[in-house]
Structure formats: C-alpha cells, structure tokens
C-alpha cells in the first residue's frame, strides 16, 4: 500500500455517482480500497450498475436515492452512509444540473433549479458531510472550468460554478481546525453519456485536441482524497486540456 492509498476501512460518499464523471469516481475509489456510497436521482438502474461493477471487482458499494435539491435527502444520504459503513472519510460533491440559454431564453425555473442543485445543494452536502466526518477528512467538489471561461448562453451555469469555487475557499477555512481539507476540481469538456453525441465538436474546441475522460477526473479526486494532499485546501484545480487558457 502506498502512502496515498486509504486504509482498509476508509469510506467515500459520492453525491451524483451513478453516471458519467461521478460513476468513474465511484469505481476508481473502490478500486483504490474505499468502501463507497453513491447517490442517484433519476436512474436507479445506472446506480445499481455502478454498485454491481464495484462488487464484481471485490469492492463494497451502496446506492442511495437522494435528490441534491432536497436538504432532507442530502442529510439522509450522509446518515445512511455512516449507518452502513460506520464512518465517513471523503465526500465528493458531483451532483449538478446544466441549463444553457441566452438571457432572453432562460426561465425563472432554470435559475431556481440551478441555484438549488449547483449552489445550495453543494453547500448542504458539504455541511452534512462535514458534520459526520472524521478528523482529517476530505471534501472534494466537482465544479467546472466555466467558472473561469464563459461562453454565450452559459450565464447561470457559469455563475453557479464560480459560486462553488468561492464557497470552497471559505469553507476550507471553517474546517481547517479539524484537519478537513476542501478542494474543487474544474473539468472542461469530458466524455460522458450526455456529451457522447458531440465529442468531435467539443474536441475541436480543446487545445490538446480531445475531450477529457471520467477516469482522468477520478485520478485527481483520488489524489485529493489521500494523505499526500493534506497541505492543499481551498484550491480550485482546472483539468480541461487548456480550454480555459
């Protein structure tokens, strides 16, 4: 076991872990030795598939239904994780929504949902996880390079991700005395089931000529979850092939 691998009892909770980047994170953390809880909203089949993949590799995982716009569901997901595994070491806040459109196209519903999930939901997930987390725990949010690089039609999405990047800085100070680090990862265009139909178009926008893979984001999460990242907190790390430069 290397210095950056978890001990046999370590537990990670991935909010939004049933698909795309979240699923890649859940699987990679299980491969590294974490016992994993993952939340889902609309696709229980995908959540069960991720849990089954983890189990087939000798890992342990549980899928928990939890809408990240619902404060009680967020708290229940944390409580359910601790009840199942007895502890919580790492929380990865990946749940989010994407609403795009110009200022004349976006509705109040678009704005309210984006704020409820991407900002309020992130805050509440960190708050609930930190309350049940052991000393020296890790909180990792999955933001977006949209916090630093906006395009037409991205106003409320970019705003929500910029809010997360700033939120992380302040919460890192709140939790520093407990040895809990709080960091934010900002992916660029990444291949998921949601982007599968536009990979070529997205790749043409990235300086290195390709989109990212969920496994690449997961490796950065794994580093931030481990002991070798203990001196880093309040940071936002962009992983986007140079897109936001």
Automatic annotation (TrEMBL):
User: Is the keyword Cytoplasm assigned to this protein?
Assistant: no
What species was this sequence derived from? Jiella sonneratiae
* Record InterPro entries: KR_dom, NAD(P)-bd_dom_sf, Sc_DH/Rdtase_CS, SDR_fam
Q: What is this protein called?
A: SDR family oxidoreductase
Q: Which keywords describe this protein according to UniProt? A: Oxidoreductase
Q: Which residues form the Ketoreductase domain?
A: 10-188
Q: Which family does it belong to?
A: Belongs to the short-chain dehydrogenases/reductases (SDR) family.
Source domain of life is Bacteria
